[in-house]
C-alpha cells in the first residue's frame, strides 16, 4: 500500500473520503505546537476556508515543539495528512493539504523569519496549558517573542496571535505572557501593545492520541498509509473574539464563530465539559476504566457527572442565547461515543494546572451565592487519589511535590490544604473548613475504594 502524499491527498476518490482541496501557494497561517489537536481543528478550518474561497495565500506553517519526528513525517508526506472522524455509525476521512511545511523548535532562525514575514497574518498556538506558566522557560513563547522582535525590525505589519489552549481568557493570558518577555517601555513592547492582537478563543473537539489501529482504519478507507493521521470526534467548535487585525482565511464561512466576547463560551466549555471530563478520567481510572467512553457508560460515574454539571450550572454565566441543558446533553453523548478511544490516562494529566483554572472559580462563585461546593470540591480529592494510586511523575508537572505532601500526611485535611496552597496560592478564600473537609473526605473515600478494587 502506498504512502499519503500531497498529490494523492488531492486525487483520492473513495466512499467516505473527502480529498484535499486547498492547494496553498504561500504561508499565511503559522501554528506553534503542531500536535494532534491543531491538525484536527484549526488546520482543518484553514483547509476548508481556502478550498471555499480559492485564496491560496493562507497555507499553514507548523512548528513542532517536543516532536522533531513529526516535522520529518510531515515532510515525507509533503505536509498532507488525514483527519479520521469517528462517528458512532462509522468512519469518514477528511484529507488536508493546507500545511506547506513543518519546522522543529530548534530551527529558531527560520521560525523568526516566518513570523517576521508580512504574508504571515495569523498565528495560532496549541502549546498546552502549562507552557504559559513561566514564559521565561517556555520555548514556544520565547520563539514567539523572538519572531515578534524580528517582525518589528523588518515590517511592523499587523498580526493576530490566537491561543487555542484550554485556558480562560487565553488571549489576555498570552498577551501578558509575551509582554513578560519584552523589555518594558521599549519600542518593541509598545509596537506589540499597539499593533499585535491577541484575540481570545474557545476551542472544542475531542482529539485522542492516534493509535496504529486508527492508521489501519484510515488506510482501509483511502488505500494509503498516513503517519500524520489524527483522529477526532464529529463535533467541532471554534469561537474567536472578533479582533483579527490582519484578516483571516475566511474561517467564518466554514463554521468558525467570530463574536465580540468569548468569555461566556469559554466558561461554558471549561466548567461544563472539561471538569466533567476530568471527573470521568480520575474516577474512571480509579475504577479500572481505560477510556472515557467506558467510564461514561458506568452508571455510577454517569450519575456523578450529572451531579457535577447540576452544581456547575447553578453559578454559570453562559453566552447570551446558549441552550445549557442541550449543551450538557450533547457533551454526555460525545463522551459516550464508543468509537473515540480517549484514554482516561491522557485526559487525567496536569490536574494541578486545570483545577485552579476550571474548578476554583466555580467554587468561589458557589460560596458567594451561599451555596456549598460538593462535587466541585470532591474533584480536588479525586485528583489527589488518582495521583496517589498511580504515582506517575509524568502525569502532572507538580506530581513530585504533591506526592511528597501526600506521603508526609499527617491527615487528609492537612494534605488537601497544603496541596491547594501549592497549586492555587491565590485561592485561600475558597479553602473554608467545610470545603476542605469535602475535598479530604473525597480523597479518603476514593483512595479506599481504589484499594478495595485492586486488592
Ligand atoms: N486534544 C484535545 O482534545 C484538545 C481539545 C481542545 C484543546 N486542546 C488544546 O490543545 C493542546 C494540545 O493538545 P494536543 O492533543 O495537540 O497535544 P499534543 O501533545 O499532540 O500536542 C501538543 C503540542 O504542543 C507542543 N508543546 C507543548 N508544550 C510545549 C513546550 N513546553 N515546549 C514546546 N512545545 C510544547 C508539543 O510539541 C506539541 O506539538 C491541549 O493542551 C489543549 O490546550 C486539545
Ligand atoms: O486538553 P486538556 O489536557 O486541557 O484536557 C483534556 C481534555 O479534557 C480536552 O482535551 C478535551 O478533549 C477538549 O477540551 C475537548 O474540546
Automatic annotation (TrEMBL):
Its EC number is 1.1.1.17. Residues 30-252 form the Mannitol dehydrogenase N-terminal domain. One of its GO terms (molecular function) is mannitol-1-phosphate 5-dehydrogenase activity. It comes from the Bacteria. InterPro entries: 6-PGluconate_DH-like_C_sf, 6PGD_dom2, Mannitol_DH, Mannitol_DH/Oxidoreductase, Mannitol_DH_C, Mannitol_DH_CS, Mannitol_DH_N, NAD(P)-bd_dom_sf. Signal peptide: none annotated. One of its GO terms (biological process) is mannitol metabolic process. It is an enzyme of class 1 (oxidoreductase). Keywords: NAD, Oxidoreductase. Pfam families: Mannitol_dh, Mannitol_dh_C. It catalyses: D-mannitol 1-phosphate + NAD(+) = beta-D-fructose 6-phosphate + NADH + H(+). Residues 1-24 are annotated as: Disordered. Residues 261-398 form the Mannitol dehydrogenase C-terminal domain. PANTHER family: MANNITOL DEHYDROGENASE 2-RELATED, MANNITOL DEHYDROGENASE DSF1-RELATED. Belongs to the mannitol dehydrogenase family. This is Mannitol-1-phosphate 5-dehydrogenase. It comes from Desertihabitans brevis.
Amino acid at each position: 500500500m502506498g504512502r499519503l502524499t500531497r498529490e494523492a491527498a488531492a486525487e483520492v476518490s473513495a466512499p467516505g473520503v473527502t480529498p484535499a482541496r486547498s492547494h496553498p501557494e504561500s504561508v499565511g497561517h503559522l501554528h506553534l505546537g503542531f500536535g494532534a489537536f491543531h491538525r484536527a481543528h484549526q488546520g482543518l478550518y484553514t483547509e476548508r476556508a481556502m478550498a471555499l474561497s480559492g485564496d491560496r495565500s493562507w497555507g499553514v506553517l507548523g512548528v513542532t515543539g517536543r516532536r522533531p519526528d513529526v516535522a520529518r513525517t510531515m515532510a515525507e508526506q509533503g505536509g498532507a495528512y488525514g483527519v479520521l472522524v469517528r462517528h458512532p455509525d462509522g468512519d469518514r476521512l477528511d484529507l488536508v493539504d493546507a500545511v506547506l511545511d513543518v519546522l522543529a523548535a530548534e530551527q529558531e532562525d527560520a521560525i523568526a523569519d516566518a513570523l517576521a514575514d508580512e504574508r504571515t497574518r495569523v498565528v495560532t498556538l496549541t502549546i498546552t496549558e502549562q507552557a504559559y506558566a513561566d514564559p521565561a522557560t517556555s520555548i514556544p513563547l520565547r520563539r514567539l517573542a523572538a519572531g515578534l522582535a524580528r517582525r518589528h525590525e523588518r515590517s511592523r505589519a499587523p498580526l493576530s496571535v490566537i491561543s487555542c489552549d484550554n485556558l480562560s481568557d487565553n488571549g489576555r493570558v498570552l498577551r501578558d505572557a509575551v509582554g513578560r518577555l519584552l523589555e518594558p517601555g521599549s519600542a518593541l513592547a509598545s509596537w506589540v501593545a499597539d499593533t499585535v492582537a491577541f484575540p481570545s478563543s474557545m476551542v472544542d473537539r475531542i482529539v485522542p492520541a492516534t493509535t496504529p489501529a486508527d492508521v489501519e482504519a484510515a488506510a482501509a478507507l483511502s488505500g494509503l498509509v498516513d503517519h500524520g493521521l489524527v483522529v477526532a470526534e464529529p463535533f467541532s467548535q471554534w469561537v474567536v473574539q472578533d479582533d483579527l487585525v490582519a484578516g483571516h482565511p475566511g474561517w467564518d464561512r466554514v463554521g468558525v464563530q467570530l463574536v465580540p466576547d468569548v468569555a461566556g463560551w469559554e466558561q461554558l466549555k471549561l466548567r461544563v465539559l472539561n471538569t466533567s471530563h476530568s471527573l470521568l478520567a480520575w474516577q474512571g481510572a480509579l475504577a479500572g476504566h481505560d477510556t472515557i467512553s467506558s467510564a461514561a457508560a458506568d452508571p455510577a460515574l454517569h450519575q456523578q457527572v450529572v451531579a457535577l454539571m447540576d452544581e456547575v450550572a447553578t453559578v454559570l454565566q453562559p453566552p447570551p442565547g446558549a441552550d445549557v441543558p442541550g449543551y450538557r446533553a450533547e457533551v454526555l453523548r460525545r463522551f459516550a461515543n464508543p468509537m473515540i478511544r480517549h484514554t482516561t490516562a491522557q485526559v487525567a494529566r496536569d490536574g494541578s494546572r486545570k483545577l485552579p483554572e476550571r474548578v476554583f472559580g466555580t467554587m468561589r462563585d458557589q460560596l458567594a451565592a451561599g451555596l456549598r461546593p460538593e462535587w466541585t470540591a470532591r474533584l480536588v480529592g479525586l485528583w489527589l487519589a488518582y495521583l496517589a494510586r498511580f504515582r506517575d511523575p509524568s502525569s502532572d508537572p507538580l506530581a513530585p511535590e504533591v506526592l511528597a505532601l501526600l506521603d508526609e500526611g499527617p491527615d487528609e485535611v492537612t494534605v488537601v490544604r497544603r496541596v491547594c496552597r501549592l497549586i492555587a496560592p491565590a485561592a485561600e478564600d475558597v479553602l473554608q473548613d467545610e470545603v476542605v473537609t469535602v475535598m479530604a473526605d473525597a480523597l479518603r473515600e476514593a483512595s479506599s475504594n481504589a484499594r478495595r478494587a485492586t486488592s
